[in-house]
Amino acid sequence: MWSIQDIKMMNRALKLARKGTYTTRPNPSVGCVITQGDEVIGEGYHIKAGGPHAEVHALNDAGLAAKGSTAYVTLEPCSHYGRTPPCALGLIEAGVVRVVIATEDPNPQVKGRGIAMLKEAGISVSVGLLAAEAKRLNKGFMKCMAIRLPWVTVKLAASLDGKTALSNGVSQWITGPESRRDVQRLRARHGALVTGIETVLADNPSLNVRHSELGELKQSLSETDIIQPIRVILDSRARLPVNMALFEVESSILLVSCVHYPEEVRNAWPEHVSHLLLPSMDGRVDLAKLLEHLGSLCHSVLIEAGATLAGAFMAEGLADELVLYQAIKILGDKGRNLLSLPEYGSMAMLPSMTLIDERKVGADTRLTLKLG
Ligand code: AOF
Ligand code: ZN
């Protein structure tokens, strides 16, 4: 069904789409390539939510030459009047005769209607070329549009023997500077960061994305282009004091507790702080309820927490992916463990996971594992 030219062009469209990875949220990253025969006559990608979609950039690039052309799009062209008119209509009006789509748009406002519009106009439409790659590129958008829950990535850092800190809690500088820059980029790709009160009290982190620490990404992403993730602190007993570093950075903070904060504490919060009261489960924040709420705010969350909270996301089957930075160090058996998990009685009970990427990050190794 697909020619080599089709595969080449969709790969080119995917490469374009990836350029929007850090800037399109909450919109998906989408790329589009327009061809006449073997020749590329237009291309573009979605840069920013509220701005033109990929197809509009590509059609503008092609101009009148788009008549009789083929368009390769990494996501079904939209059918709705949102912040921009429907892309399906744009392709029809430009005289495109064939549209190749990687994957359907799960947005209930679109969901097959874009494809139907194109077909009704007599355009030849084929769907599914490099679909897995296209879905993976927008995994948060795909999951959240379909089931209203955000994609959950658990970030972990450990030694060769799976320890995260010395027995006295000292954990700094286990992984190297390249890994820390990589974590900054990971943060910049997520809609929210979730951590626990214990981590905040112990490390006093700012939990923001810092332009100076983005490494090679600094060249292509300006400081104002960064979309700061919402910083979510789980603080079941409302203990977080107001003199912490994270309050000094002006981007959204969501404090989640199971009891109310004292009024004098609430009055001292800066404007960028909001509060969510959730039921407790065994004295802790109900994580399933938390994710339901976060699904209404963003499409993806990064868990950067200690063994208890990270383990709870895994044990409750709420995590989609683990990103593990492993340092060439051995901390010994008195070191702190990576994840608190219930005892497994047999090998069959172990969480199932697939290694989807493995690479060197400085002197460390980064493993990306898909759960389930
Ligand atoms: C496309 N091409 O490049 C993108 C699409 O807020 P709006 O008006 O920009 O609409 C956002 C929705 O449009 C988004 O949720 C998704 O369904 C679709 N994104 N569609 O045809 C694009 N980015
Ligand atoms: Zn569109």
Automatic annotation (TrEMBL):
<dbReference type="Pfam" id="PF01872">
    <property type="entry name" value="RibD_C"/>
</dbReference>
<dbReference type="InterPro" id="IPR002734">
    <property type="entry name" value="RibDG_C"/>
</dbReference>
<dbReference type="InterPro" id="IPR016192">
    <property type="entry name" value="APOBEC/CMP_deaminase_Zn-bd"/>
</dbReference>
<keyword id="KW-0686">Riboflavin biosynthesis</keyword>
<feature type="domain" description="CMP/dCMP-type deaminase">
    <location>
        <begin position="4"/>
        <end position="126"/>
    </location>
</feature>
<dbReference type="InterPro" id="IPR002125">
    <property type="entry name" value="CMP_dCMP_dom"/>
</dbReference>
<protein>
    <recommendedName>
        <fullName>Riboflavin biosynthesis protein RibD</fullName>
        <ecNumber>3.5.4.26</ecNumber>
        <ecNumber>1.1.1.193</ecNumber>
    </recommendedName>
</protein>
<comment type="function">
    <text>Converts 2,5-diamino-6-(ribosylamino)-4(3h)-pyrimidinone 5'-phosphate into 5-amino-6-(ribosylamino)-2,4(1h,3h)-pyrimidinedione 5'-phosphate.</text>
</comment>
<dbReference type="InterPro" id="IPR050765">
    <property type="entry name" value="Riboflavin_Biosynth_HTPR"/>
</dbReference>
<comment type="pathway">
    <text>Cofactor biosynthesis; riboflavin biosynthesis; 5-amino-6-(D-ribitylamino)uracil from GTP: step 3/4.</text>
</comment>
<comment type="similarity">
    <text>In the N-terminal section; belongs to the cytidine and deoxycytidylate deaminase family.</text>
</comment>
<keyword id="KW-0521">NADP</keyword>
<dbReference type="InterPro" id="IPR011549">
    <property type="entry name" value="RibD_C"/>
</dbReference>
<dbReference type="Pfam" id="PF00383">
    <property type="entry name" value="dCMP_cyt_deam_1"/>
</dbReference>
<dbReference type="GO" id="GO:0008835">
    <property type="term" value="F:diaminohydroxyphosphoribosylaminopyrimidine deaminase activity"/>
</dbReference>
<dbReference type="GO" id="GO:0008703">
    <property type="term" value="F:5-amino-6-(5-phosphoribosylamino)uracil reductase activity"/>
</dbReference>
<keyword id="KW-0378">Hydrolase</keyword>
<dbReference type="InterPro" id="IPR004794">
    <property type="entry name" value="Eubact_RibD"/>
</dbReference>
<comment type="pathway">
    <text>Cofactor biosynthesis; riboflavin biosynthesis; 5-amino-6-(D-ribitylamino)uracil from GTP: step 2/4.</text>
</comment>
<keyword id="KW-0560">Oxidoreductase</keyword>
<keyword id="KW-0511">Multifunctional enzyme</keyword>
<dbReference type="InterPro" id="IPR016193">
    <property type="entry name" value="Cytidine_deaminase-like"/>
</dbReference>
<keyword id="KW-0862">Zinc</keyword>
<dbReference type="InterPro" id="IPR024072">
    <property type="entry name" value="DHFR-like_dom_sf"/>
</dbReference>
<comment type="similarity">
    <text>In the C-terminal section; belongs to the HTP reductase family.</text>
</comment>
<keyword id="KW-0479">Metal-binding</keyword>
